[in-house]
Amino acid sequence: MESVHAVELKGITKRFGSNTANDNIDLYVDRGVIMALLGENGSGKTTLMNMLAGIYLPDEGRIFVGGKEVTISSPKDAFDNHIGMIHQHFRLVDVFTAAENVVLGLDEPGRLDIKAASAKVKEISERYGFEIDPDKKIYDMSVSEKQTVEIIKVLYRGADILILDEPTAVLTPQEIERLFKVMKAMRADGKVIIIITHKLNEVMEVSDVVAVLRKGKHIKTVRTAETDPKELTELMVGRKVELNIDRKTPVDPKPRLTIAGLTVKDGEGVKKLDDVGFIAYGGEILGVAGIAGSGQKELLEAIAGLRRIEEGSIIYSPEGKAPQQIVGKSAMEIKDAGVAMAFVPEDRLGMGLVGGMGMTGNMLLRTWNKGKGIFVDRRAPEKLASDVMESLEVVTPGIYYPVRKLSGGNVQKVLVGREIASAPSVLMTAYAVRGLDINTSYTIYNLMCQQKDKGVAVIFVGEDLDVLLELCDRILVLCGGKVSGIVDARTATKEQVGILMTSVGGKGGKADA
Amino acid sequence: MSTLDFIVALISAAVLNGAPLMYGTSGEILTQKSGNMNLGVEGLMFMGGAFGLLGAFTYGNAAGDSASGVVAVIIALVCAFAAGMAGSLIFSFLTITLRANQNVTGLALTIFGTGLGQFVGELMRIRVGGNVSISNALKVSFAGSPFPKFLQDIPVAGKLIFGYNVFVYLGIVMIIVMHHFLAKTRKGLYLRAVGESPSTADAAGINVTRYRYFATVIGGGISAVGGMVYTMTIAGTVWNHTGLSGEGWIAVALVIFCLWKPINSLWGSVLFGALLILYIRLPIPFIPTQIYKVVPYIVTALVLIMVSIRQKREDQPPAALGTAFFREDR
Asked: Which of B199, B205, B330 lies closest to A79 in CB terms?
């Protein structure tokens, strides 16, 4: 006789129009277990979990919580069944404090007592080892703090079943470690944790069981101890894949961008980049590492001409042409000279893509001024859209389907694909693989390498240190807007880069760094 | 007239003219706090003005000499409030349930409301065969101060503190209650959450639809009362088909000026009330009255510019203002 499962899904199906997101899924989790839900982008992981959280209603199938059949038709029903979900896009009110966000929507009797709520937030924080100030406003918080508030919010409601949707996508290595510690503390407390992810190393590190979804179907559930990343990848992708980055030694690198003394301030006059200097070579991938908000975004924007430069020079030396100073040139001139930027912001659609337009329309954004006459040339972008769709395997009903409605990873493929297609001589990408599954990530890494082999100077701003070390030739580490150090990616270690990330020159680093 | 007298008179007139705005604005603030942008305030105030007058007038005719001022005031309030609720219920149904565009629906409500108000007002006029007006005894209950004469007779303070009509005091109490509701109560917190981020509120188990309906319908009722206050006090209980025009739009502008905080509408409406009548009280030679009339809008624009320069998060409009909410949308 088997014990009752904490959560069990039977024959769950969910369709969006003609698109079947989940197809007859059977799945269960037991108490005190961390389950990883693994799958490529658009495989239906989030959709499935949203049905547990009361965001979507299943079209078919039954849900059992603690052995009892339940109907979860609203988030409130989910809470009543002790299910809490931490969404990838945080569900927090920016102008409220942490405590105000935590008590949101509760049916507690009596007057609103924020002080009591703060006290309880503190108590929960201490129990699981969070660090949070209950009276801090959300807009003052870092991504990791916001996530902490989200977790406390569901714990405050007495959730026993926690669903985390790609919780590590926006965290630094140190923050991820802290999160995993908390998750293990919660597991020890008898809670069920479902973590949606596609990072295999995390799956191996933190989970007890792994459920793999592919194209809306539940493929298999395996014990983490009895599997390895290779098997999981094959289950996820459905065929054997080679996860290798073909990193060649740069051939005859020539300086492409020579940057010296670059200083940039933000709207409040705070220095975001402080005396930054480096050389980016053609035929080389220069990685940029740093804690989120160390000036990565400002650096790329300054080079692309989108940000006012206080001081410094950027000399651009295109192949076979005289070097030119690009400080003071307009973004359009810089783009036309061959400097391309693909920046993937946290919300993906914020920069570079128009959500309501299809792939074709978005391709057009780069070429609108190319055509002759007063009419827009639609044929070229159409072809480009089809090419990108094919080569990067974008899952979309068609090239005219609004990109806003695509899953996050697919949106990103469109963005990166478009920038690469413009055949630049400097290619800058930031967080190009943020939230992408492993297969697509490697597709993009190899696209970068191809560009490098063509002699393009690639600047790759990344979050995952393992990838940076594997992909790049050199790594520039930013810390608080200053260049903390430039290391050779072939010989440097993760620890070395980690220390540079937290202190300029790697001196006086904090003990936990 | 001494300077002191002039200032006292100016302030009294400012408060008198500010009272309709106080209602119009605070009602719209409540609405906008839920994320609903109801541009139909102009229409709602017209409806409130016409139906408030209709109610008081019908009651005055029916009760004859035995008519009670208090009852007349209550009837006018209830009629105006109900008219406003009905108007904003249409708006709510279209924008919340059917997710129509809020701006377009609001403009349509303005056209509908002004039309209906004019229709009712003109119909009354034709029926009566002249100016619609209630008895002088009843008029005092609307336009006169509710305080005893000896309080009103205190020099300066009597006029400045006790000299206003009952709606001014009622409005002040209503705004303080609304401020407390939004700032301190659980429901108020939830309502603000709905206006800032409906998906957050929804994920937290708050019924977004219910809160939006509640805030929009109550807010619409309050706004409509503003129209009634105008007709029954400033316009002297006479239906005048141009008198109300523009009041609703100034109320919408005032919402921005008040930075979506009801407590600011206490002094904001008085300030705008002053700007509205400055051309009568403080005429400057060679400056046409039209210049005076655009001043409220210029002030609003300046406030908007200053707020966006300062970028203080608490002063920004509710983040979800003007957007419909659909749970399964992504």
From this structure: B205
Considering only CA atoms, which of B266, B4, B254, B216 is closest in space to residue B106? Answer: B216
Full-model pTM:
0.77
Whether residue A200 is contained in a domain is answered as yes
With CA atoms as reference, the chain A residue closest to B197 would be A93
Range of the domain at B107: 3-315
Q: Which helix (H) or strand (E) holds A19?
A: strand A19-29
Q: What is the CATH number of the domain that holds B217?
A: 1.10.3470
Looking at the structure of chain A, the number of domains it has is 1
User: Is residue A36 in some structural domain?
Assistant: yes
The CATH number linked to A158 is 3.40.50.300
Residue B149 lies in a domain: yes
B201 part of contact set with chain A, CB < 8 Å = yes
Query: Is residue B300 included in any domain, yes or no?
Result: yes
In a domain? residue A29: yes
Domain carrying residue A39:
7-237
**Alpha-carbon distance values, A512 to A495, A503, B17, B224 (Å):** 11, 12, 64, 61
- Does A185 map to a domain? yes
Q: Which helix (H) or strand (E) holds B190?
A: helix B186-196
* Domain assignment present for B324: no
Q: What's the rounded Cα separation, in Å, for the pair A320 and B292?
A: 65
pLDDT tens, chain A, 513 aa long: 356 889 999 999 998 877 788 999 999 999 999 999 988 777 888 889 999 988 888 999 999 998 899 999 888 889 889 999 998 888 899 899 999 999 988 877 777 888 888 999 999 888 888 888 999 999 888 888 898 999 999 888 888 999 998 888 777 777 888 889 989 988 998 899 999 987 788 888 899 999 999 888 999 899 999 988 888 888 888 877 766 777 888 877 888 889 999 998 877 778 888 899 999 998 899 999 887 778 888 888 888 888 888 888 888 888 777 888 888 888 778 877 777 776 665 555 656 778 788 888 888 777 666 666 677 777 778 888 888 888 777 878 888 888 877 776 777 778 878 877 777 888 888 887 776 777 778 888 888 888 888 888 888 888 778 888 888 999 999 888 888 889 998 888 887 887 888 777 655 433 333
Shortest CB distance from B200 goes to which of A53, A92, A103? Answer: A92
Report residue A387 as tokens: 């090419």
- The alpha carbon of residue A27 is apart from the nearest alpha carbon of chain B, in Å, by 23
- For A163-182, give the DSSP string: EEESTTTT--HHHHHHHHHH
**How many domains does the structure of chain B reveal?**
1
Q: What are the two backbone dihedrals, phi and then psi, of residue A219, each rounded to the nearest 5 degrees?
A: -85, -50
Note whether B25 and B260 are within 8 A (CB): no
ipTM for this prediction: 0.85
Which chain A residues are closer than 8 Å to B197 by Cβ?
A: 91-94
CB contact under 8 A, A100 and B185: no
